[in-house]
């Protein structure tokens, strides 16, 4: 009720994320999923992001974004953590999730901004 969410791009990234001068390559027994998305605050006031989106697979398992995702995002992209969302202005963010190798039927879980809101809507990622 307080926002519009749109997935711009979603893809599986394999089991290794390339490192850089700050962070070493990251490996997983599972796989990494990248999601780029746009959020528009539809309220009349600026909102602070307290909770970032998650993904859920067809088995009902929920996965939060990586804590250190900023080290592995493509240059110029940012995560959503602690961002301010002005009223009516869309902002684009990126997230990386580590999931088991057998994860399928992935849904990107968008949620309300309210601190104690539990309403989430799933956006099918197509894999």
Uncertain regions: pLDDT < 50 for 5+ in a row?
A: none
| Terminal CA distance | 27 Å
Assembly state of the chains shown: single chain
- Structural class given helices, strands, pairing? mainly beta
Portion of residues in helices? under 10%
Largest sheet: 4 strands, antiparallel
E-strand count: 9
Topology pattern, helix = H, strand = E:
EEEEEEEEE
Q: Globular, elongated, flat, extended or rod-shaped: what is the shape?
A: globular
Mean pLDDT: 92
* Strand-residue proportion: over 45%
What is the spatial order of strands in the main beta sheet? 5-4-8-9
Q: State Rg.
A: 15 Å
Given the structure, what is the number of helices? 0
Describe the overall structure.
The chain has no helices and nine strands. The protein has 127 residues and is mostly beta strands. The strands form three sheets. The protein has a four-stranded antiparallel β-sheet with strand order 5-4-8-9, with no helix packed on it. A hairpin with an 8-residue loop joins strand 8 and strand 9.
